[in-house]
Amino acid sequence: MYRYDEFDATIVRERVEQFRGQVARRLAGELTEDQFRPLRLKNGLYLQLHAYMLRIAIPYGVLSSRQVRKLAYIARRYDRGFGHFTTRQNIQFHWPQLPEVPDILQHLADVEMHAIQTSGNCIRNVTADQFAGVAADEVEDPRIWAEIVRQWSTFHPEFSYLPRKFKIAVTGAQDDRAAIRTHDIGLRLVKNDAGETGFEVWVGGGLGRTPILAVRCRAFLPKQHLLSYLEAILRTYNLLGRRDNIYKARIKILVQATGGEKFAQMVEEEWEKIKDGPLHLPQAEVDRIHRYFAPPAYETLPDIDPAFETAKLEHPEFARWARVNLVKHQVPGYAIVNIALKSEGGVPGDASADQMDLLAEVADAFSLGEVRITHHQNVVLPYVRKRDLFALWQRLKPAKLATSNLGFISDIIACPGLDYCNLANARSIPVAQRLSRHFGDPRKLDEIGELRLNISGCINACGHHHVGHIGILGVDKQGQEFYQVTVGGSSKEDASLGKIVGAAFSEDDIVPAIDTIINTYLANRTDRSERFLDYVRRAGVDPFKEALYGSAPARRTAAE
Amino acid sequence: MAMASQMITANRLSDGMVVYFTAGKGWSETFAQGAVWNDKESAETALNESKESVKARIVVEPYLFDVAVTDAGPKPTSARERIRADHNPSVAPDQGSWTGRIPD
Amino acid sequence: MALLQHGALQPNNWRFVGDDAAIPVDEPVTVSLKRWQAEGESLRGRNAPVGVRLKNDEAPQALGQDVHRLSLIEVEFPKFTDGRAFSQARILRDKLGYKGELRGIGTILRDQYLYMTRCGIDSVELPEDKSIDGYLAALKEFSAWYQPASDGRLTVIELRHPANANARRGGAPVVTASVAAHSA
Question: In chain A, what residues touch B18 (CB-CB under 8 Å)?
Fold first, then answer.
């Protein structure tokens, strides 16, 4: 993984001292809350319902065991013994105290971590495919480019006061695990006809109040021009993005208003002028960063490990976990292990300090000391020998870290919702907990098959509800919590936005409503090979409306 | 329609803790110690008084919120304020997240 | 208002003249882009220096080669969350090659001052009683820079690969000592 050199370390250390000064000025009354807010947000510090919240970047989701242990330490020493992993490969602590935040940042800097630009109207933490460097279907490792973008975007003097937040995701595979079309800029590594690797550039995606999928801005961008092309997009946006209305300030609105082709043309014109300037990436720098991501010294192993096969035969629960939570590795004899932070009745994405310590321990024992955080709020061990899988599973199981539900209905994405968040209209976590209990039976999960269920506590859509196969959105009706349901969304390469099934459900009715949706699907699918998403795409929302509301929605439809 | 009764709340600057404006023009972490205003004018006057604590760097962004006055005392009418008044998420504390802050 | 320039607070001799007001004969003035475009000929004939104040939604490219005839260009920060002037400044410096004084006016927070200087702004307007200590301290809060901007500072990439940087900067030697000294 990437390691800081003296320059990276200097910049992060200087940021800690700068923020220490800003906090001191706030506490001394030199800064008002209005002046301090944007400064603290640029360092990931929110003031939420009950307390401050500190959002820490996990660039492209990669963590060393040493860093995980530090997070566990921070959780115990400065928080309430847990942390929450988010859909943007960040971790949030929900109870820090303002005067202590600079000390937390110093601890993070000690292990090459920071909270830089994890909020605010600037370029946010760059995310990438969690299987980077180990996925069997990869064109090229996206981490190299995500790191290059991380450095370029850090304290960019021109793009730190953008109209709105700006999110960039990079994927290196055809199977889009980074949800690039829901980002302001999505980058996909592709090969052109000449066999060269470059970027397909997508622009103008985003969820929130007006969900829009990104459009393709350029089919092939030579790699050495990545930064100048990004700078051209950002400059165009910084000058022309709307600043009169916060809900229309994202680049997606500018791209839609301008038209995708016209916008791409404006970017090209700007890029032509700067592409051979100082942003042209020297190969020596690409090579330098590439070296940090060189494959580890893999052992030469048979792809089929007899001990692993035997353990599966002897332990059906382990066999199920192996079937559900493992992904094919590039290297024979190795597996990519997914650890779901989605235990039955648990809080999606939460890990206790003890669980973090255990993750660090098993990473050291079985995965070359490295873990990854996924945008589905799960953890990945990228380098596990198949012969170690059973021992690993045995360590995970007592810590509630061996849930076998990856990609099933109980593998829920959920934002913190009204239990923590100042922006939320309704709680997300209790709904996720009840659904995970309701769909706790593994046989039920298998029967339903692949299903992504995402929950957001408000229209800002941190829980990505628009792109869940089933999406749940919390809304406020006269101070009471209600839940609107969508079906048919996807964040993958076949990205689509879910459609609303009808009027929102009360807190008591939401779980039965989801149950009705599932039963409607099970009763009407052609066979098991027709996934829930396939069925929605074939049959539309009407069967669900009928099952949920009887004839009532028909009247609404007629009235429209 | 008569105005709903109101209380004043804010977050404490140092740790973000939810606090309520009291009859003695101080702040309390305890919801039940917060003062209740029954007319718009006195509520607005109290809100202005509470803003002195913003200048004094004690709290951040005080605001009024509606309560229903019951025999058992005032209750917040919104889910948001009910959760704030608990000082904790509604998530069951047995989920493993509640080991509490440890000392040095 | 005073000016923060060259590390000290200086008196401001310039005055912005509205579109309908008469232009004083012997005083340095800035005018709107619109007025410059309409009256450029006569303004250039004055004895006193002339500058242009750009609005946030005006493209600096509209000035074209005229930038070389101006002694001052002002860019506005109407509120500190509005960052358009950062891009305008970079276009003026990097694309149009403007070499004169580039001034930031409006809401100038110390926490943005460093970014302003990186984008090529070399003076900012501040209230006369404002302490500039914080502004000067802000310039020293960082000693290394990832991205090239309009201030000519060496980037981290250049410092990591001096040979490349030498070639790009036409052979001028690249000094690598500063950050190393700082981090010691």
Answer: 49-50
